Amino acid sequence: MAGEPQDDCLFCKIVKGEVPATIVRETATTVAFRDINPQAPTHVLVIPRAHFPDAASLAAGDPAAAADVLREAGEVAAAEGVDESGYRIVLNTGAGAGQTVFHAHAHVLGGRGLNWPPG
Question: pTM for this structure?
Answer without folding.
Answer: 0.95
